[in-house]
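To close the chapter, one final illustration. This time we ask the reader to focus less on the individual chains and more on the assembly as a whole: which components sit near each other, and how the overall shape emerges from the parts.
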Amino acid sequence: MSTSGNCFNQRKAIANKPANVIRWTWTKMEKIDPKILIKFYQEMFLIRRFEERTAEQYALGKIGGFCHLYIGQEAVAVGAIAALKNDDYVLSAYRDHGHCLAKGSDPKRVMAELFGRTTGLCKGKGGSMHLVDSDRNFLGGYAIVGGHIPLAAGVAFAVKYQSRDQVVVCFFGEGAVPTGICHESLNMAALWKLPIIFICENNRYGMGTPVERASAIYNISQVASAYDMPKDSFDGMDVLEVYHHVKSAVDMVRSKKVPIFLEAKTYRFMGHSMSDPAHGHYRSKDEVDEAKKRDPIPRLKGKLLREKIMTEGQLQAVEKDVQEVVEESVRFADKSPLPSTESLESDLYQ
Ligand SMILES: Cc1ncc(C[n+]2csc(CCOP(=O)(O)OP(=O)(O)O)c2C)c(N)n1
Ligand SMILES: [Mg+2]
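The assembled structure is written out below.
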């Protein structure tokens, strides 16, 4: 009787202790080097053109399987990954072309992977949803909603266990947030103080379901409060906003070794996947057209012109170079060989 009473009192004492809350609010950097702004434009334009060509190649039957385009969301991958060091880790869900390209993967090898060719990042055996480039610490590309969030926490655990200095960034959609595994991962990351940034790309829809019909909270970053994890929310259609907020979070995570949850409010301009129409019944054409007014690429272009960082002619030259890189990636993929039947069982876990 007295033992259980002691135990109860002990637990009550722990529960009454103030929680070990980590305080953090993002701080804006002083000034951005114009060279970084030009890099942002070039990278976002690359992802956009790459995926426009991907859509065409898919329609021609050159690309098989599921294929989810990132068009509209480019500012999130580009702004966030620019805030990282080269050896920091990135994991993403199935809408992964943009994250992989922003992490520095060769567009030729990414396109070849979409074409299922031996020269692809995963020798043509992964495809659109399973891009991996371990040389660049881009660890995938996962098709199961929420399934990669614990894997990312595991990578962060390894970084901490081995006393390394890297940061892990895990991108996922708002549709993954209500999954049990997301909550388990947030809890463990907070409990064990793992060096990870969870970036929720809230594009307002999970396939055809609006977030209001799937989540009890609309202000998604609130979910972090349940785990006493610092959080932040920002405009994901503005690459500079994304960069400033993520850079500040990266600095905090690297120096204090704690997790942070970020919500980037964004929008996809295309259908959920290549099998869906651009809007469908769950949203109107007017809604999509309205969102396109916030397209991150023309927004940055306007800034570059207004602030006289680049002229119209210089921007056109950048666009032409990118266009050529994308064309070369299609030519490379098209002339690359398909995997042989004999190679079907190689490179697999036994
Ligand atoms: C566990 C699981 N359930 C269902 C699906 C089918 N599915 C594929 S994508 C998707 C919607 C996910 O939406 P969100 O996380 O918001 O990502 P977005 O597609 O908007 O980038 C669903 C339900 C799946 N892949 N995995
Ligand atoms: Mg979504």
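The first strand starts at residue 89 and ends at 91. DSSP finds twelve helices and seven strands in the chain. With these observations in hand, you are ready for the problems at the end of the chapter.
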